[in-house]
UniProtKB/TrEMBL annotation:
<dbReference type="InterPro" id="IPR005501">
    <property type="entry name" value="LamB/YcsF/PxpA-like"/>
</dbReference>
<dbReference type="InterPro" id="IPR011330">
    <property type="entry name" value="Glyco_hydro/deAcase_b/a-brl"/>
</dbReference>
<protein>
    <recommendedName>
        <fullName>5-oxoprolinase (ATP-hydrolyzing) subunit A</fullName>
    </recommendedName>
</protein>
<dbReference type="Pfam" id="PF03746">
    <property type="entry name" value="LamB_YcsF"/>
</dbReference>
<dbReference type="GO" id="GO:0005975">
    <property type="term" value="P:carbohydrate metabolic process"/>
</dbReference>
Amino acid sequence: MRKIDINCDMGESYGIYSLGNDEQMLQHVTSVNLACGFHAGDPRVMANTIVKALEYNVAIGAHPSYPDSIGFGRRYMEMDKKDIYHMVMYQIAALQGMVTAFGGSMQHVKPHGALYNRAVKDPVVAEAIVQAICKVARQECILFAPANSCLLELGKQHGLPVAVEVFADRRYLQDGTLVPRTEANAVICEPKQATEQALQFLRDENKVADTLCIHGDHENAVAIAHQLKHGILANGIHVEAVGQWKAI
């Protein structure tokens, strides 16, 4: 039976500021990418989100980013490779330690925002991220990355298990990269459109997809998550956390 994971960015509130519909989204997704304090999240938010994810039996991953809370991690930053390595290592280790303290385990790592987009094309950035994952989690953690990206290929070269990610609620350019968020209509906010795009990926034998990403920080997020999951199930595809069925 065809299987797919549904992942969502989460734990992106900070202090008195609340962002996203985390608990409602947890009812529809199988994996979550938790902010580690650099673009969003704080120790209390991280802890509370971990506890909720474990309650809903949702797999947990780290979502490291550039140190850019003002820009929500969506601005490119020029950094030395070693600084990126240590920055990512720090964030992964922080989340892994908290997840372990609450009796769970960390399934995956998915870079956030500009760091993710940079690692898609920049082998230096990609290698720094991969080396940080290997140092902290060794080969026991899945790397989420787009198909045909520097990040995916370097993950494979370093022996990391990888999961190919596609986006249900982001539009794509002809070259297979994401439409920049600075452009109009970069984000799909209509549940039916997001579900149709996801099903196109899953039906296309020439495309690999292990995990579908949806975002929880816009007003239709819960409706998209609900319709997406039910649409996938209605097409005979099993929805389950990638770590349960992809070999590590």
